[in-house]
Amino acid sequence: MGSITLQGVRKVFGDVEVIPGADLQIENGEFVVFVGPSGCGKSTLLRLIAGLEDVTSGRVLIDGRDVTQAPPARRGLAMVFQSYALYPHMTVRKNISFPLRMAGMDAAEQARRVDHAAGILNLTPYLDRRPGQLSGGQRQRVAIGRAIVREPSAFLFDEPLSNLDAALRVNMRVEISELHNKLKTTMVYVTHDQVEAMTMADKIVVLRAGRVEQVGSPLDLYRSPANRFVAGFIGSPNMNFIEGEAAARMGAHAIGVRPEHWNLSTTDGAFAGRVGVAEHLGSDTFLHVDLDGGTHVIARAAGEIPVDHGDRIWLTPQDGRIYRFGADGLAA
Amino acid sequence: MARKVSTTRKAVMTALAWGIAIVIFFPILWTILTSFKTEADAIASPPRFLDFDWTLQSYAEVQSRSNYFSHFLNSVIIALGSTAVGLLVAIPAAWSMAFQPARRTRDVLMWMLSTKMMPAVGVLIPIYILFQRFGLLDSRVGVLVVLMLINLPIIVWMLYTYFREIPAEILEAARMDGARLWDEIRHVLAPMAVPGIASTALLNVILAWNEAFWTLNLTTANAAPLTTFIAGYSSPEGLFYAKLSAASTMAIAPILILGWFSQKQLVRGLTFGAVK
Ligand SMILES: Nc1ncnc2c1ncn2[C@@H]1O[C@H](COP(=O)(O)OP(=O)(O)O)[C@@H](O)[C@H]1O
Ligand SMILES: [Mg+2]
């Protein structure tokens, strides 16, 4: 089991209110991603769940049990840190078995669990090495192994991939998703990378300045963002926003169109502009366009498009793919 | 081409480094050589480098005139004692400053260090009078306490920098893994802190062993360490270079040997944990 409930959780550091009050329900077995810009309070929220920080007010419940006052070890959660936080003086085997030794488990059971976890994570050949002798990806796997052996009711990940290079990051992303499919244990995963959020999550929690902006499945957030912040944060490249007269004509303060939702034409359309940078990737073409009104937008077209720097171009939003926002930033 | 230039450069740098090292080491080498000469050879002009009559005569005289071992014992007691007591005070202090910093922690650290910038002679009279009043003059306990206090800022600073290198996340990981405070200290903190504590202790032993200002001013006979022992051979009855050299060699030998066998920790200690 591993459902987590936050009720009015508030956190103040000194005189700075980092989390003004969060309510959240995480179901057993879900893969939940906290996403938001750097410094928005993702780690703080995760650490409040872990018990590494004390809540200023509010309650944290795990499987319906109030753990607000319980120390980290009593919450049955395992955490994987951004820096891996391995014990540098212990071998991989000792690192992975550390939580089991702390729990006073007998040696045979310890060895069985460590071997099992090492098998899942391809760490068997490295069990007698120290963390210093491992690559970044291997260290990350050791940190995950140390979390797995405890058979926790939920895993907490704090930006676990941000110290890895791009290629490895994609691999580990898939590995963690596969691990979730295999274990079916609740995972709470923090990242500032919306691609990680979109690809891994069952449920995304978008945070801004400590506030929960929106909660939903990746496609929910993509299709119906609650406000301009979420609309701009989810999707890559970011949504284009057009304000002023053009937006007013559509009865909104601002309208949003995703780069992949433009129809392109070299003769006519809703918005005229000139192509700045044209990025030809083969599979896609990204056009940076300066509209005549002065707004800069990005358009993405599938395949190869014979358009280059300096060309005139007309952009028309696809039917039903225009997002309208009021002056308060909320979706209209 | 570029490679060749850098090789030449390397050779020049190496030669320069050796040159400087020899210049710095030469007085020590000369002292050691002189200690094996007769008094006549010691002042011979031109000086004789290796082709003199090697003799242990000066050592024998020094040993018969003053009791080397009692001074040696005092040095050991003062150096090890002040280090042990210093660590006892400094470990918890540096610990709390590194892991539970308060608003003024950095100021306190700076203030502690600033006391090292004051000339020691400025507080000689008050401390001397205090020692007199409390009957601590020429006592091992007195010197031990003074040396402990003199070096305390350095010990605290060094330990603080070492402890700060221990990432807080590792301690948090241990907490998540179910370690209680004692497990955390025993299995995680202590093993990671021991190398830092060892280098700090080593450096402090050396500093205390070599300390001359306070030991010369506060001891005469009973508590006199090796620094006082050497000083006794310098001026009053005219200079006897060979005996002075023998005394100096006997005084520095133990610490030189200790330093030789612990070079690695020492370099780590002297760089204040900046180089890993
Ligand atoms: N221990 C702390 N003391 C004071 N401020 C903190 C502390 N931890 C985090 N903060 C502040 O809280 C805010 C959120 O931090 P964090 O949760 O780490 O953000 P994120 O993980 O989303 O990048 C930041 O402004 C940060 O400076
Ligand atoms: Mg963070």
Query: Number of helical segments of chain B?
Result: 13
Low-confidence stretches of chain B: 272-276
Average of pLDDT of chain B? 87
Describe the sheet with the most strands of chain B: none
What is the mean predicted local confidence, pLDDT of chain A?
94
Encode the helix/strand succession of chain A as letters.
Answer: EEEHEEEHHHEHEHEEHHEHEEEEEEE
What is the fold's blueprint, element by element?
The complex is a heterodimer of chains A (about 325) and B (about 280).
Chain A: E1 4-13, E2 16-26, E3 31-35, H1 42-50, E4 57-62, E5 65-66, E6 77-80, H2 92-102, H3 107-120, H4 136-148, E7 154-158, H5 166-183, E8 186-191, H6 194-200, E9 203-208, E10 211-216, H7 218-223, H8 228-233, E11 240-243, H9 245-249, E12 254-257, E13 262-265, E14 271-280, E15 284-291, E16 296-302, E17 312-317, E18 323-325
Parallel strand pairs in A: 3-8, 3-9, 6-7, 7-8
Antiparallel strand pairs in A: 1-2, 1-4, 4-5, 9-10, 11-12, 12-18, 13-17, 14-15, 14-17, 15-16
Helix pairs in contact in A: 2-3, 2-4
Chain B: H1 2-35, H2 39-42, H3 57-65, H4 68-99, H5 105-114, H6 124-133, H7 140-165, H8 168-176, H9 181-210, H10 213-218, H11 226-231, H12 241-261, H13 263-270
Q: Which features would summarize this protein structure in a list?
A:
heterodimer; A: 332 residues; alpha+beta; Rossmann fold; OB fold (Dihydrolipoamide Acetyltransferase, E2P); six-stranded mixed sheet; five-stranded antiparallel sheet; 9 helices; globular; B: 276 residues; mainly alpha; MetI-like fold; binds adenosine-5'-diphosphate; binds magnesium ion
Molecular structure report:
- The complex is a heterodimer of chains A (332) and B (276).
- With 332 residues, chain A is α+β, with helices and mostly antiparallel strands.
- Chain A has two domains: 229 residues, Rossmann fold (3-Layer(aba) Sandwich); 89 residues, Nucleic acid-binding proteins (OB fold (Dihydrolipoamide Acetyltransferase, E2P), Beta Barrel).
- Helices cover 27% and strands 32% of the residues of chain A.
- Chain A is built from nine helices and 18 strands.
- In chain A, the strands form four sheets. Chain A has a six-stranded mixed sheet with strand order 6-7-8-3-9-10, with helices on both faces.
- In chain A, strand 15 and strand 16 form a beta hairpin.
- The model of chain A has no long low-confidence stretch (mean pLDDT 94).
- Chain B is mainly alpha-helical.
- Chain B has a domain of 167 residues: MetI-like fold (Orthogonal Bundle), CATH 1.10.3720.10.
- The radius of gyration of chain B is 23 Å and the shape is globular.
- Chain B starts with a helix and ends in a 6-residue tail after the last helix.
- The chains are: A alpha+beta (332), B mainly alpha (276).
- At the A-B interface, strand 6 and helix 2 of A face helix 8 and helix 9 of B.
